[in-house]
Design a protein that fits this description.
The complex is a heterotrimer of chains A (320), B (199) and C (339). With 320 residues, chain A is an alpha/beta fold. Chain A contains 7 helices and 17 strands. In chain A, strands 1, 2, 3, 4, 5, 6 and 7 form a 7-stranded antiparallel sheet that branches. Chain A has a 5-stranded parallel sheet with strand order 10-9-8-11-12, sandwiched between helices. Chain A starts with 6 loop residues before the first strand and ends with a strand. Chain B is built from 4 helices and 12 strands. Classes of the chains: A alpha/beta (320), B alpha/beta (199), C alpha+beta (339). Chains in contact: A-B, A-C, B-C.
C-alpha cells in the first residue's frame, strides 16, 4: 500500500528571525507547485545526516495559498537529541530533503463564530498559517502571544503589522502576561480556543478553561513533542524476523526505519496514535512517553507508541 | 431511558450540573422539572444562584411552586413552546462562553430546544439532556417534509400529505425529529394495523 | 478517446441501456460466492484501460443522460443539494478536485486553465465555457459543489472532520440507494450508518472510521457497495418511495432479465487540502440481469451471493419481493462449475 507521495525539495532560503529561531523556505527541486494545505498542518521532513536518515515533524507556517514554497521555523533547543541543532548547524542553502504531504492534526473548527489563539514561544508557528486562512475567509479571530523577550520572540512584529489590533503580544521580560482568566470569561458563545506552546502553558490554559465552564468541544491544543533520549536497548521485530539496536539518541521508530522496516506514523510526537504497535513479548519495563494511550492501556503493556516511547530490560518483542 | 435500537437514536444521559459553569440555563417541560429537583438533591444548591429556569408547564403546573422555592436567579414560566424557544434564543444571543444548558422533558421538546441551542452556536455534545414524560415522538414525513407532534402510534397518517407513515428509530438532531416513511408504498392499502408504541 | 454519449432516460419510459462496451467495463462487486460487510477500502489508483477504474473520476456513455436526470431531480426537489454554511471552503476543494480530475482523464472533453484565481473551465459535451474567480461565489451560477456536481457523474458527500468523527455536512444526492440527504445532513459517521445491520457489531464501522480519520492528501481510497433496483431508476430516494416502491411488485419470471438491476456504487474518498474535509464520490453503475447473464461467471456468482445472504441483509437491502424469482431466473445461465 506504500505509494510514496513524498516530495523531493531543497532549502531555498534560511533566515534568522529571532535569537534562536531560523526560518527555512523549502521549494520543490523540479520547480513545481506545492499542494495546498489547511492551517495547523505539519509536514514530516526527511534529511540525510552522517548516521543515516533524520525525520522530524514541523508545522507549516507559510500562508496556505502560497504554492511556490513551504516555510517552517525551528527553535534551537540545547538539550534536544540534536534535531534542532542539526537544522541550525548542518542544513545549508541547497540542502536536499524530502517532504511528506501535509497532514493536519490541529485544524480550525470551521463552525466557530470566533477563534481565540493563545501562543507561547515557537508555538506560534501553526497559528501563522491558521490566521492567514481565517483572514482570507473573513472570519473573526484574536491572537494572544506570549514571548520571553522582544528579540527572542519570532514574528510578533510581522503579525502585528499584518493583523493589527487582533494581535496582542505579552513579553515575559517586561513582566506582562496573558490575562487568561479574563479572556475566558468574555467570549461569545461559539468561540473556539486554540493553545500551542510549552506543555505547562497548555496544561494551565486547559485547566483554567474547564474551570471557567468551557466545554471540551471548544478547546483545541497541540503539543510539540519530540522523542526523548534514553538508554540504548534492542528490539525484536517478530514479523520481519529482525533484531534491531535502538541507540540512546534514536527512537524505536527511527531505529526500525533505519533497518528498512516501514512503520506507520503521522505526527512523530506521541499524539496521534498512528504508530501504535502491539507488544508481543516483554521482559522489562515499557517507558510510555506519549499523550495518546489511556492510563489503563499504558499499564496493560499491550501496545507502545514507538515514535516516542522507550524500554528498559532484557527483551522486547514487537508486532512489526 | 431506553436502550438505543440504532446508533442514530439519541441517548439522553441525564442532567449533570457543571459546578464550573459561570451560568446554567435550565429548559424544562412538564415532568422535566423533577430532573432539576433531583439535581439539587444530588449536587446541592450552590449552583442555583447562577442558574435560570425556563419552564413550560403543560399538565404539570404543580411543579412551578417547587421551582420557585429553589430560588434560582430567575424562573420564567412560558405560556407555550414557541414563546419558550424565543426567550431562549434571545438569552443565548448575548450569552458568553461558560454558559451551560440543561434540558429535560419529552423528546420533541428536547429536540426543538437543541435546535435553538445549535443555531446559537452551542455544540450539541456539550448540552445535558434528560427524558421525562411521554414517549410520544415528533416525526418528520420524508415525503412532504411536514412535522407531526405527539405521535404515539405506528403507522400513523401524516398530518401533511395523509400517507400512512412507519415511524423509524432513525433520528435527526438537526431537524429534531424521527423519520416517517410511507409504510405501504409497495402495495398501497396493505398497511399493518396500528400499534401503540409510545405512550 | 471519444465517448458516444447515449440519449436515454432513468424514469418514465426507462430507455437506459448499457452498450456491449458498457457491460464489459462494469465494476463487478463480488469477489467470492458469499457477501459480508467488511472494511473493503483499498488505494484508489488508476486501473486497467477500458475499465471503470481507468480514470480516478470516471465519465462513461451515460454522462449526458445522467446529468439531465440530475437536473430534473433538483428542479423537483432542491433539498437534494445542501451545504451547511461552514463547508464553503470544502465546496471549493471539491470543485477543484473534480475539475482537475475530469480534465486530466478526458482532455478532449474538458479543459481547465488557471491564471492565479481566474480560472476557465470548458465542458465540451455540455457546451459550457465558464470563466470565474476561484473562491468568489458570485462569479458562478451556483455554489461551487452544486456547480461541479451538475457536470460530474455520481453523488457527492463532503464530510467535515472534527471531534474524533466525520460529519456529513454537505452533499448532492440524486442517485442514492434509498437514503435522504435532507434527513441525514449534519449526522456523524456512526449516525448516518445507523441502520446498517450486522456491520456495527462486527466492528466494521469502528475500523473504517479510524482509517478514514487518517486519510491523507494524495492517497485517495475506494470501496464498492451494491444494491438492487427494479428498472434503471437512479432516483430511488425515500422522498419518492411512493413512486418507485410499487415497481418491486412487478417482477415476474418473464421480465427478470430486463427489469432487475444490480446497482454498484464505486465510492472514492479523497482528503481535501484547504478544508481538511473528505470528499466521498458515490459513482453509480446500474446493470440488468440480462446483461449480467452475458458473462456466465457473473450470473453464477450473483445467484450464489443472493442465495446465501443473511436475512438481515435481505431485509435491509429490500430484496424480499423479487430475490427468489431472480435466483431462479439466473440458474439457467450457470456455467456448470461446481458449487
Amino acid at each position: 500500500m506504500s505509494i510514496s507521495t513524498d516530495m523531493p525539495m531543497r532549502v531555498a532560503e534560511i533566515t534568522q528571525v529571532a535569537d534562536r529561531v531560523k526560518r527555512f523556505r523549502l521549494e520543490r527541486r523540479d520547480g513545481g507547485t506545492l499542494p495546498y494545505f489547511s492551517g495547523g498542518a505539519h509536514v514530516v521532513v526527511t534529511m540525510r545526516d552522517a548516521g543515516g536518515l533524520r525525520r522530524n515533524a514541523y508545522s507549516l507556517m507559510s500562508a496556505p495559498h502560497e504554492s511556490s514554497a513551504y516555510a517552517i521555523s525551528v527553535l534551537h533547543v540545547e538539550k534536544s537529541r540534536g534535531g534542532s541543532q542539526f537544522m541550525h548547524e548542518q542544513v545549508d542553502l541547497g540542502t536536499e530533503l524530502t517532504v511528506s504531504q501535509p497532514v493536519n492534526l490541529f485544524p480550525v473548527d470551521q463552525r466557530g463564530r470566533r477563534h481565540l489563539f493563545l501562543a507561547g514561544g515557537i508555538g506560534i508557528t501553526p497559528f501563522m498559517a491558521m490566521l492567514e486562512q481565517l483572514e482570507r475567509g473573513g472570519q473573526d479571530f484574536e491572537l494572544h502571544y506570549a514571548i520571553r523577550g522582544r528579540s527572542h520572540g519570532a514574528y510578533w512584529r510581522e503579525l502585528q503589522g499584518k493583523f493589527g489590533g487582533r494581535v496582542n503580544v505579552y513579553c515575559d521580560a517586561e513582566k506582562v502576561f496573558i490575562p487568561v482568566a479574563k479572556l475566558l470569561d468574555d467570549q461569545p458563545l461559539g468561540t473556539h480556543l486554540y493553545v500551542c506552546g510549552p506543555t505547562g502553558m497548555i496544561d494551565a490554559t486547559l485547566t483554567m478553561a474547564r474551570h471557567a465552564g468551557w466545554p471540551q468541544q471548544n478547546l483545541h491544543f497541540e503539543r510539540f513533542l519530540g522523542p526523548p533520549a534514553g538508554n540504548a536497548f534492542r528490539v525484536i521485530l517478530q514479523r520481519s524476523g529482525m533484531d534491531v539496536a535502538v541507540e540512546g539518541r534514536q527512537s524505536i521508530l527511527e531505529a526500525v526505519e533505519a533497518a528498512g522496516v516501514d512503520a506507520p506514523f503521522l505526527c512523530r510526537g506521541g499524539a496521534c496514535g498512528q504508530c501504535a504497535t502491539a507488544v508481543l513479548g516483554l521482559d522489562g519495563a515499557l517507558e510510555h512517553n506519549d499523550h495518546y494511550l489511556s492510563d489503563a492501556e499504558k499499564v496493560s503493556n499491550s501496545k507502545l507508541m514507538i515514535c516516542v516511547s522507550r524500554f528498559k530490560g532484557r527483551a522486547l518483542v514487537l508486532d512489526l | 431511558m431506553r436502550t438505543p435500537a440504532i446508533k442514530s437514536r439519541p441517548v439522553y444521559a441525564g442532567l449533570q450540573v457543571n459546578p464550573h459553569a459561570r451560568r446554567t440555563l435550565f429548559a424544562l417541560q412538564g415532568e422535566g422539572a423533577k430532573a432539576l429537583f433531583e439535581q439539587v438533591e444530588r449536587a446541592g444548591r450552590e449552583f442555583l444562584t447562577r442558574s435560570e429556569v425556563l419552564f413550560l408547564a403543560g399538565n404539570s403546573v404543580q411543579h412551578l411552586a417547587g421551582l420557585q422555592q429553589l430560588a434560582p436567579h430567575l424562573v420564567r414560566q412560558a405560556p407555550n413552546l414557541d414563546s419558550l424557544l424565543q426567550r431562549l434564543r434571545d438569552d443565548l444571543a448575548i450569552a458568553k462562553m461558560g454558559t451551560s444548558l440543561q434540558v429535560a422533558g419529552t423528546e420533541g421538546f428536547i429536540g426543538q430546544v437543541l435546535q435553538v441551542a445549535m443555531d446559537s452556536h452551542i455544540d450539541a455534545a456539550s448540552i445535558c439532556t434528560e427524558h421525562r414524560g411521554s414517549l410520544a415522538r415528533r416525526v418528520q414525513c420524508v415525503h412532504c417534509k411536514q412535522f407531526t407532534d405527539g405521535v404515539t402510534h405506528s403507522p400513523f397518517a401524516c398530518s401533511g400529505c395523509g400517507l400512512g407513515l412507519l415511524v423509524r428509530d432513525h433520528y435527526s438532531r438537526r431537524l429534531g425529529a424521527f423519520q416517517g416513511v410511507n409504510v405501504d408504498a409497495e402495495a398501497p392499502g396493505t398497511a399493518p394495523s396500528l400499534e401503540e408504541l409510545y405512550p | 478517446m471519444t465517448i458516444a454519449f447515449r440519449e436515454e432516460t432513468f424514469r418514465d419510459d426507462f430507455t437506459f441501456r448499457n452498450s456491449g462496451a458498457g457491460v464489459l467495463r462494469f465494476p463487478f462487486p463480488f469477489h467470492e460466492d458469499r457477501y459480508t460487510y467488511t472494511v473493503n477500502l483499498e488505494p484508489h489508483t488508476a486501473g486497467a484501460a477500458g475499465t471503470a477504474y481507468e480514470h480516478l473520476i470516471d465519465i462513461d456513455e451515460h454522462y449526458l443522460a445522467e446529468m439531465q436526470d440530475r437536473a430534473l431531480v433538483l428542479a423537483e426537489d432542491s433539498l437534494r443539494c445542501q451545504a451547511l454554511p461552514h463547508m464553503i471552503s470544502a465546496q471549493w476543494d471539491a470543485l477543484e478536485l473534480l475539475m482537475e480530475q475530469q480534465a486530466l482523464g478526458y482532455p478532449e472533453l474538458f479543459t481547465l486553465t488557471k491564471h492565479g484565481d481566474r480560472w476557465r473551465w470548458i465542458n465540451r459535451p455540455m457546451g459550457i465555457d465558464q470563466t470565474f474567480t476561484f473562491g468568489d461565489v458570485s462569479t458562478l451560477p451556483y455554489e461551487p459543489m452544486e456547480y461541479i456536481a451538475r457536470q460530474a457523474q455520481g453523488d457527492l458527500c463532503i464530510v467535515d472532520q472534527r471531534d474524533g468523527s466525520l460529519w456529513m455536512d454537505a452533499g448532492i444526492v440524486t442517485s442514492q440507494a434509498d437514503w435522504s440527504l435532507d434527513f441525514d445532513i449534519g449526522m456523524n459517521f456512526m449516525e448516518w450508518h445507523a441502520s446498517v445491520p450486522l456491520a456495527h457489531e462486527a466492528g466494521v464501522f469502528d475500523r473504517a472510521l479510524k482509517f478514514l480519520l487518517n486519510l491523507q492528501q494524495g492517497k485517495p481510497v475506494r470501496r464498492l457497495n451494491w444494491a438492487m433496483t427494479i428498472n434503471p431508476r437512479l432516483d430511488t430516494s425515500p422522498e419518492n418511495y411512493p413512486k418507485w416502491g410499487p415497481d418491486r411488485t412487478t417482477v415476474t419470471p418473464m421480465n427478470v432479465g430486463e427489469k432487475v438491476y444490480l446497482r454498484v456504487e464505486l465510492q472514492s474518498l479523497w482528503r481535501l487540502p484547504r478544508s481538511n474535509a473528505i470528499l466521498f464520490v458515490i459513482r453509480c453503475y446500474p446493470i440488468n440481469m440480462a446483461d449480467i447473464a452475458t458473462v456466465p461467471q457473473w450470473a453464477r456468482r450473483v445467484r450464489l451471493v443472493l442465495a446465501s445472504l443473511p436475512q438481515q441483509i435481505i431485509h435491509y437491502k429490500c430484496l424480499v419481493r423479487f430475490r427468489q424469482t431472480t435466483i431462479d431466473w439466473l440458474a439457467q445461465f450457470d456455467d456448470g462449475a461446481p458449487g
